[in-house]
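Figure 2 data, in text form.
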Amino acid sequence: MKYLQSLSALLLAGVTAQASLTTSVVNTVIPDGNPNGVTSTLTVGGLAPVISEVVVYLNVSGGFDGDLYATLNLGGSSGTTVVLLNRIGSSPENPFGSSAAGFGDSTGTTYEFSLSDAAATSIHNYDGTGSSYQPDGGTLSSFNGLDPDGDWILFIADMASGGGDSPSTLVSWGLDITAVPEPVNAALGVFAGIGLVVVARQTLWRKRRQPAV
């Protein structure tokens, strides 16, 4: 039993979470009314091989938030893509969406605005007061289980002409990635398998100890 307890401790230690924040200051104007948009790439390396959580930080200034469409991609054309922004505030009654101008902070690296699955409200309902929202049209948990190392590509486009005193600008963005050394289920599976072996050995030992009839 002591052996089993020690082994379980080792397995749990093997799935300790590792978090890493990677940021990029871009200061790139997003072309007005151009669906080709702009892209920015963050290269991540040296993390544990399995993603358990992703939080995205965004800093966008100017323009109309209701014009913006954005995605996050891991791995290029063959990788996973999640929709982050999809014409904030737009609806059949309001096809132009929100007229708010940007979100985030003004320093570029001290992030106060994030997209997280753990947030209570979708950014589609952004009212300019909150600091954390769910992505608009996708879930960041789609990246869970993947290897975080590689190129993360943010795409953002202004989908409607006009809006605001100045065009939207992607000031900066960042990723806070939590990863684990191995899948938790795999570790628990190994643990369960070892537990069955121990139970089997105990059963066999008891049978051997029973007196002959």
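Caption note: The radius of gyration is 24 Å.
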